[in-house]
Design goal:
heterodimer; A: alpha/beta; globular; B: mainly alpha; 2 domains; 9 helices; about 0% strand
Chain lengths: ~300, ~260
Amino acid sequence: MTALLRAEHLFCTLPSSDGERVLFRDLSLQVESGEIVDLTGPSGSGKSSLLTALAQLNPHASGDLTLRGRPASAFTPQQWRTQVTYLPQQAILTGGTVAEAIRLPFTLAVRAGGSNGTEGAEDAYDGGRRRFLSLLRGADRHTADRLDDAAISRMLDALGCGDIELDRPPHDLSGGQAARVALARTLLTRPKLLLADEVDAGLDDDNAAKVAAIMTRAAREGMAVIRIRHRPPDGASSRTLVLSDGRLHGNDATHDSGSTDMQAAAHADGSRSGRTQGDETHPDGVHPDGSRAGTARPEEEA
Amino acid sequence: MNGGTYYPIDVWGLLAAMLMVVAAAAVSWRMRLGIGRTLLWSACRALLQLCAMGLIIGFVIRADNPWLVALLIVVMLGAGVQITLSRAKGVPRGMAGPVLLALVITMLLMLTLVAELIVRPTPWYSPQLVVPLTGMLLGNSVSALAVGLTRFFESMRERRDEVQMMLALGATTWEAARPSIVSSLRLGLLPTTASLASSGIVTIPGMMAGQVIAGGDPFDAAKYQFVILAAISALTLLADTIIMLLVYRRCFTDKDQYLIA
């Protein structure tokens, strides 16, 4: 069985005033569909750099990445990033209204013409995703940039953002609302792996709980999530990875299925700190290949 | 030049003009504006450069040799590139090639369209027409390119979080850079469109003024001026667009990652 994302020999070397500084070297990790992985570690240890490296956004990083066994070189950078999507800590919303901000991903060429850029990597998840996109696009499949407001509203409702009006200017939103809109914008593009960089930092407990609930729901539909967090464990994740001193320490929470492939990191060295209790909240019945995806889409619950 | 009288300027005229600058510099010293030295230095440079250019153009016109005209234009292009690069702030290295290409393309278009299609001088390389045309075009493109390049890289740095966000959502480098390209094109073209709209009302543009002072027919001068202004605005936008197409990828790696050197 191939893992959703497999990363090997990850290096990150930052240029600095006195030559180069190695942030991490030769890291490996694997992620399966439907699991939520927490990534912790001291600040400056390279957690964000690790996430941007996985999304191929980090110019200082290198490594071998495969998605469902297909090497990153088989994708264009844009195709890869629609599947492995980095969500920055700071919510940046463009355009005059919340609706415009949310439509941004669908105005991009990589999503034009109903193609989701996976070049024939057909599986249930892709099919669901395509239907999902065509639903969003309504009658005219060329209206990627004119998504139906009602559809977006239903989505936001389903994602727990029903309190956010679509015609509001994004800069009027509170920090918690902006964070949830940015999260919704990314989730609506249906990535296979969401790389969430401290999305709940700076939010109050209420908003942080809402963000966690949204991610749990997405994971239940087959999306994998890696979260950088500084908050105490909220029970949403199935395991925790700790990045410190350039090394990745894994903590494999007891898992019901596919545990051999759920091995955290190649460098798991027994220092299993920061355990989280994943089992009670981990969605049962999610097959690691994500084949259950698409059976419960948010709009059907709205 | 038909009919009109021509009034030349003698050495005393130059001295008087220079005295005005000296007086302005003195006032600036008195008021501690801190621009007196620059003002004087620039005025001296301008006097020398303009006189030199006048002598050189005079020589080239009398020599009536297409190769000499080409040589002069090449020198002007080189100076144009150097001035653009020295004026553009915060721009990565290796911009000389793209700037030269943008200037050469627009200059060739200017000469083809304006000189050979609209004015049709004899001989076709008439230095009296070609050299001033090139000079006017270069003057405008050089400032537009310098402003455009400065603004583009400044904007890409300001927008770094937004660019990263867009790339993360699957944007191409072009899509991520586009807002910065648009804003730099607008800014680079602002002086050109402003001069186009205000010409004839507030200002009599330099070329038309010169023709009138030299005794030419004012209506002829107006037509000339319009052709030049129109061509320059169009070609300035073209030069700016070319430079943006050539350099926007400098903000990204070959894996479409955001990185400004």
